[in-house]
Design goal:
Helix 2 packs parallel to helix 3. This protein folds into 2 domains: 58 residues, no CATH class; 51 residues, no CATH class. It has 112 residues and is mainly alpha-helical. The chain is 39% helix and 7% strand. GO terms for molecular function: polyphosphate kinase activity.
Length: 112
């Protein structure tokens, strides 16, 4: 059996149907990803079972650690003179550790 998964950040605009914007999405049959998507739904149904993810960023399992690692990588790139940059789209940001890392990145020359 081939599984397919569609992963995206789409918002439904019901009040402004003529507004155009771009969504990011991925349609894949990659078994590594589709198996993890299936595990996300299994986790939602059975939250008491431990689960890990290797390919997906899933809150609260691994998103903080992965975001910290990504920011740290951009800081290292900037310090080595390599291209760097961080773009985030957030509704709000309350994680003090991530805020501190973003300030450190900006201070290191990373465009944030």
């Amino acid at each position: 059996m081939v599984r397919y998964a569609h992963i995206g950040n789409r918002e439904t605009l019901t009040k402004k149907p003529r507004v155009l914007y771009t969504d990011y999405s991925l349609l894949t049959a990659d078994a590594r990803i589709t198996n993890e998507v299936r595990r996300v739904f299994n986790f939602i149904e059975n939250p008491y079972r431990p689960v890990t993810f290797d390919y997906l960023m899933v809150s609260p399992q691994n998103s903080r650690r992965l975001l910290y690692e990504m920011v740290d990588r951009e800081i290292a790139n900037a310090q080595q003179g390599l291209p760097s940059g961080i773009t985030l789209k957030l509704n709000n940001l309350v994680d003090k550790g991530l805020v501190d890392r973003l300030y450190a990145a900006s201070s290191s020359g990373v465009p944030v």
